[in-house]
Amino acid sequence: MSFSVRDIWFKGYRSLRSIHFEVGDLTVFVGANGAGKTNLYRGLQLIQAAAQGSFAHELAREGGLAAALWAGMRPKNEPARIHLDVGLINESMRYRYRIEAGLVQQAGGTILGTGFLGEPQVKVETLKFSHRGRERTVLERKGPGVTILGLDGKRRSFGVPLLASETALAILHDADRLADIAAVRRTLLEWRFYHGLRTDRDSPMRQPCHAVTTPTLASDGHDLAAVFATLVHIRADAAALQECIDEAFPGARLVVPMPDRMASFGMVFPDNPKRVYEANELSDGTLRYLALAGALLSARLPPFIALNEPEASLHPDLLAPLAGMIARASQRAQIWLVTHSKALADAIEALSGVPPHRVIKRDGETWLDGLRLGGDFADEDD
């Protein structure tokens, strides 16, 4: 069972002083450089990292917690923390996962606890479940201590204190005893973030990959050839894929040989119909478009797909076909799109009826135009 994202609340992370809003089946963010669009995207990645057990490592790669904290003013007695909170829903079942990270506690120049100076420390972690108006806390972590709600309805200590760099969501995933935690963690791990689809000459997408049935594209696209082979030879359902290729490159077709040990693909173009251009010969824009097609038209879409500036290196003529793929995919999965391109956002709106959110800077903080403090938008009353 997978869950959709219902709403997010990010606080104290980079340019996100405090922002809360509901999320639909298709959510598009458009704005200028420096407005903070990527911070919204990155906040969701950090939530997934908590499920993977790499939360502290991801923040460390950003330069440590001090570099990732909101740099503006905050209330005098409020601790310096990053607060990431996501609501998940499936019919009448709702979960809310929250994680807070702060700095290592010190007293008189001495480090207190089990972390290094400058290391991100998980301070608070909770998972709450609500159904038919009743809410219960199934996981609660404060510092190293964790309590969980058992199947008998009784709360008990996990027993083993966690390190400040560990996340309870990653450590506690015994599906037999902790089905709620396992369900949420599984959903978060299924999310896909597509921003690192490299098209340089050493890109893994330009190389054959192992011929293994692959229903969903990996975040780095290394298994793109296997995704295409699965659609063409296992599912025999590549009509939508070929249609999107023809819209982008009229008269061209995708060639996917029946794989043996390795899977590969190429393209045939109308100006040279007897020549197959292998993946390592394709232009950056062509390869990127094919990778996005693999992400959005694969045999099994993940429950949540996040795209960060998918229009990069694409010719303007490819934006309309890309918008069509995104609108079509939003009928099978929840889509979160961050883009610089107003043309792409407008094309998606024309196809889906979903207007984009304009990301702005307001007194140094990232905000969404029209967003009210309650988490809804001013035009929703119209």
From TrEMBL:
Pfam families, alphabetized: AAA_21
Domain ATPase AAA-type core: 26-345
Superkingdom of source: Bacteria
InterPro entries referenced in this protein's UniProt entry, alphabetically: ATPase_AAA_core (IPR003959), P-loop_NTPase (IPR027417), RecF-like (IPR014555)
PANTHER family in alphabetical order: DNA REPLICATION AND REPAIR PROTEIN RECF, SLR1056 PROTEIN
Name this protein carries in UniProt: ATPase
